[in-house]
Amino acid sequence: MASLGSVTAALRVTEVLEAIASRCVGPEGGQVLCTKPTGEVLLSRDGGRLLEALHVEHPLARMIVSCVSSHLKKTGDGAKTFIIFLCHLLRGLHAIREKDSFTSENTQTHQRHWKNCCQWKCISQALLTFQTQILDCIVDQFLSRHYLSVFSSSAKGWTVCRRSVESLLEAYFCGRVGRNNCRFISQLMCDYVFKCMDHESVVEGLELVDNCFLELNVGVTGLPVSDSRIVDGLVLHRDFSVYCPADGDIKMVMVTEVLQPPFSSSKSEFVLDSEAQFQASQCWIVERTKAVMKHLQSQNIKLLLSSVKQPDLVSYCARLHSISVVECLSSEEVSLVQRITGLLPCVLPQVPSQGEISDTTLVKFCKPLILRSKRYVHLGLVSTCAFIPHCVVLCAPVLGLVQQHESAFRGAFKMLQQLFTDLDLNYIIQTNAQRDSSPLACNNSRECSRPPEIGKYQDVIVKSENKLENTQTHSKAYSNVVASDTELKTRVTWSAHKETPLDTSQTNVILKCLSPEKNWVISDCELLVGSNPTGNPTAEDTRTEMSYDNVQVTSHPGKGCTLPVMYKSLEACTSLSYYCSSTLPAGCVLPVGGNFEILLHYYLVNYAKQCQQSAEATVSMLIANALLGIPKTLYKPKNGKDSFPQIYMRSLHALQTCQPMVSGQSGLEPVAGKYQLIASVIQCLAKILTVDLVINIKRQPQKIGDQDSEDELEH
Amino acid sequence: MSRFEAKKPSLCKTEPLTSEKVRFTLSVLKGILASCYGPSGRLKQLHNGLGGCVCTTSQSSALLRNLSVTHPVLKVLTASVQNHVSCFSDCGLFTAILCCNLIENIQKIGLTPTKVIKLNKYLLGLCTSYLKSEACSCRIPVDFSSTHIFLGLVRSILTSKPACMLTRKEADHISALILKAFLLTIPESAEDRVILGKSIIVPLKGQRVIDSAVLPGLLIEISEVQLRLLPTQKSSALKVALFCVSLSGDFSNAGEGTVVVPYQVSLENAVLEQLLNLGRQLVGDQVDLVLCQKVIHPSLKQFLSEHHIIAIDRVGVTLMEPLSKVTGATPIGSLNTIASTTYGSVKDLSSARFGSKHFFHLIPNEATVCSLLLCSRNDTAWEELKLTCQTAMHVLQLTIKEPWVLLGGGCTETHLAAYIRHKVHNEAEDVVREDGYSQAELRIATEAFCSALESVASSLEHDGGDILIDMKYGHFWSGQSDSASVVNWQDMLSRCGCGLYNSQEGLSWSFLRSTYHPFAPQKCLSQAAVGTASNLTVDCFTAKLSGLQVAIETANLILDLSYVIEDKN
């Protein structure tokens, strides 16, 4: 049996998924209760998990689900938005087809289908071209001027701003955990991040937490969520086998094998000649074990971690020598302890009794932790890496909720990890003469209004493109720029959203990131006053706000080196084809609530207007219109001033008059994630469009390749 | 080769709470739970119809464990109650009924989930901060110098479990025993950290409840034959060796290699020789009592008894920790040499007979372990009684940690409802300004919340009596009204639910179900009243507070559901 793989079919499938996703998306979305075949109950608002739980049958739907999950693997966020955006794209395409179908009415249905498919193939190509070339360009050139950053400057250098991270996490958890707990959980997560992360290498620390979060959290059921907390040190998910209370700093060793010498070792034969020999060897084993323990005690070791179960004799000897023992550590726990403390497992039976044991480490405390009448081992490890050990105790009335919070935490770590790394953008600008009279009014006006500065900027930017290697060139770049600041100060009328300190801070972050010594410092500092230009200030007081911004700007002389974009767009005006490679710098964020979508929509529409090739323009318009579907869904439950048309009109007005955009919500979202989402959806759509026929077969599709290639190698 | 089977698509349901079926099952569950609540609650008999044992109970833990609910929404509810019970032992029914009531009430008012959740959270915040505040007048600080409140607490728990089938006298006896057992677990010399001991419940079925007893130390059940082996009494303390390794002469840890044993070498003899050597050492060290977690070899046993050493084996792993605590001995894990520091001692050892069972009674010098010999005539009542005793012990421990109790008998619920009503009535404007909801919405949600609390209290009345609230303290009163006409409440009622106030204080009453004008319940609990009231009904503070939070969080969680996806594989 075969069915036509057309836009209509895909649309029908996606609309069903969209109906589900749109109810759970955003701060107004609800929880989903999934039951497993085993009877387990799982709570989730995670779009990826939701789609998996549905076990969709339709092949196109399955393809979409797999696209979503591969997107999630990369970014950890945006599954529901993925579906909504895809659905709107398909709707747009469907509408285009409806229009076309009037022209070729008399052709046979099947023929028409094939013909359509050829068209779809073309559109699919156009989409891919758009994604690889135009999208990057727009994101880099136009959108970048609206970015905010989670970094702020302080005396110590560039620091991660706690307030920004808070609002970032709050927006993230709004879509991930129940409405009841999102604020509490995001606060907990924020505390956790700031408690755990070292001042220097945030990314490294986040990576460790992301990998080992299973070991770093303890789930407790039956308590209210508000009892969740962060505990200092590491909590192992088991009890002591032997616990001897000890005070002060405690020396610890880790072993991976049984400490009692085996009666006979593997692959050897032990011939017992007499009963006395048997007794003697038993005695020797006991004496040997005692000697090892005594040796440990003499080295002042008070705690023994073991990845295997130790025999009774070892526990007994440990107790006699007042050494606490924790057994049966999982390999993950062993490697976590290793990563945190740098402690290597020590090989004890071979160690001569006199020798010093080098593989030891100190722990600050070692005590049992009782959570809901279950005992855990609580260790105050001393960290030697970028991660300061802390554990989260996640409490909830039911297990499903604990699991939901745990997976939301993991997703958030992934999101943060992505936020703190740069994203490369590559695109080719094929410019033509018309480009000089670009329809982007504000862009144009800016270029005209400030010719004297451009030269200076070029100077700076050339340097920054050469990848600043040391701070000296860095400061040189600054010194070049200071002059232009004074000029700028006088021009208050100038458009606000380009020259906000935020832009500059972000550029500086790029520079920082390029330079080898990344010194981001985390502190609890407040957000810069002027660093939220698109946020709170309303349209009325923009003017005053603007002047304030500029004053603020001059206070730190990083300002002048605006984005490389500026330089590039100028370059584009003169040369015909220009290959750009740029980065979406780490820490870029935008306010939530469809801000990114509306901005991208606006610039895409503008782009389409000036575009000559019809295919490119069509695709741009298609994507631009579909983008609006996301804020439309988000604002559906709102009415009055907060309804979508109002917000949209206000934003458009603000953009046209070059005023900062007003956002009703305080949350932030990372730009990189959004950008990748758009790219993933376009790729998925392109994939869907290339399928023309879905054929149902009875067998598993046979795997091709592996065996043959091996045969070939043998010949 | 594995067989692949296509996964069946899942079933996805929108807005589960709007479905009639779910509402119905929820109300059935609520009916079952509410009818069990309180001292006059009705019992439920659970059986599988295939000849399995019958469980008669009114406790949430037993009930929910055996009840199989199928709908996912109900599963969440019951799981959360069960988890609460396994944390705190008490207040399971309270949590479940409150949660059901709240869901039911909120569905009637038709606010959007987002708003309701926010409002519920706000109201819960009011409750918890009031209950934790000094001004709270439904909370009594525990007076450690008298057993008054502790006894009240234990008795409230016992009387609220009618399936234990206790008479008044028996209830008094058992509550005294429980309290005694608990007090025995408290160490006498308190250091910076107090570690409570353990009381072990020893079953003795077929005896009268009144025969139950508490004994310090441990009881180890033995056969009658072993009893005869008991040697003559010794005047001084007995030296004890406690083994955690098997003394049966087995040779289990041969390692991974091959062991070759020639024909003439007998490993059995070698091991036995080793065991006897051990025995000789024990004799040399003048040990009087050998306890072993696992099995002792008969020859060693024989050897030991020849030397007047009592040997008890197969003690089991659960008794090891209490044994080590009672005797002060370190469990020995070696067959070779025994360090003298590992020995412990007991004051005395005696044999005892209770009913048809024989026990060794280890009497400690000073230890925090005791045995509660619990008797009951039939199995189901014994099970219920055992659960109740465990609950009471746990609640006492919780009360030591947070030394407050809440007024029981429905008074806390009605008082809290009255407080919230009054608070919202007076301060609605301030609240509304902060958050994005209107005053009317706040009022509606408050009404739903408070009436949910009040219906928990009114679930205590199962005999069709009138349920009232007084307008001074906001306490719960119930009484039989024989005529429909206006009655003289003062004469008809005697004491409020918790027993703190009597009706002769010139109070005025209102029906709980009717709407009454919000009033400020009197703050500041008078200590004099607490002192004079003889039979106070009180509840565990920690358990009830957590139950309240869990109930509302669970209700919020269920109200937040927009889909149920059932995996049909």
Give the helices and strands, then pairings.
The complex is a heterodimer of chains A (715) and B (569).
Chain A: E1 2-4, H1 7-24, E2 31-35, E3 41-44, H2 47-54, H3 59-75, H4 79-101, H5 109-141, E4 148-149, E5 151-154, E6 157-161, H6 162-174, H7 182-196, H8 202-216, E7 217-221, E8 229-232, E9 234-236, E10 250-255, E11 269-271, H9 275-298, E12 301-306, H10 312-320, E13 324-326, H11 331-341, E14 361-371, E15 374-381, E16 390-396, H12 399-419, E17 423-430, H13 441-449, H14 451-465, H15 471-490, H16 501-514, E18 520-523, H17 542-555, H18 564-574, E19 577-584, E20 588-591, H19 595-610, H20 614-627, H21 629-634, H22 644-656, E21 668-670, H23 671-690, E22 693-695, H24 706-714
Parallel strand pairs in A: 6-18, 7-16, 10-12, 12-13
Antiparallel strand pairs in A: 1-22, 2-3, 4-20, 5-6, 8-16, 9-15, 10-14, 14-15, 17-19, 20-21
Helix pairs in contact in A: 1-4, 3-23, 4-20, 4-23, 5-20, 5-23, 6-7, 8-12, 9-10, 14-15, 15-17, 19-20
Chain B: E1 11-14, H1 20-34, E2 44-46, E3 55-57, H2 60-66, H3 72-88, H4 92-109, H5 113-132, E4 139-141, H6 148-159, H7 168-184, E5 198-205, E6 213-216, E7 218-222, H8 224-228, E8 238-243, E9 258-260, H9 267-284, E10 289-292, H10 298-306, E11 310-312, H11 317-327, E12 344-346, E13 348-354, E14 357-363, E15 369-376, H12 379-401, E16 404-407, H13 411-434, H14 439-458, E17 466-470, E18 476-479, H15 489-492, E19 509-511, H16 527-532, E20 538-540, H17 541-559, E21 561-566
Describe the structure.
Chain A is an alpha+beta fold. Among the domains of chain A are: 2-140 and 678-695, GroEL-like equatorial domain (GROEL, domain 1, Orthogonal Bundle); 234-388, GroEL. In chain A, the strands form seven sheets. Chain A has a six-stranded mixed sheet, with helices on both faces. Chain A has a three-stranded antiparallel sheet with strand order 4-20-21. Chain A has a three-stranded mixed sheet with strand order 5-6-18. In chain A, β5 (151-154) and β6 form a beta hairpin. With 569 residues, chain B is of the alpha+beta class. Helices cover 43% and strands 17% of the residues of chain B. In chain B, α1 runs antiparallel to α4 (92-109) and α9 (267-284) packs parallel to α10 (298-306). Chain B is globular. Classes of the chains: A alpha+beta (715), B alpha+beta (569). At the A-B interface, α1, β2, α2, β11 and α9 of A face α3, α5, β9, α9 and α17 of B. β11 of chain A pairs parallel with β9 (258-260) of chain B, so a sheet runs across the interface.
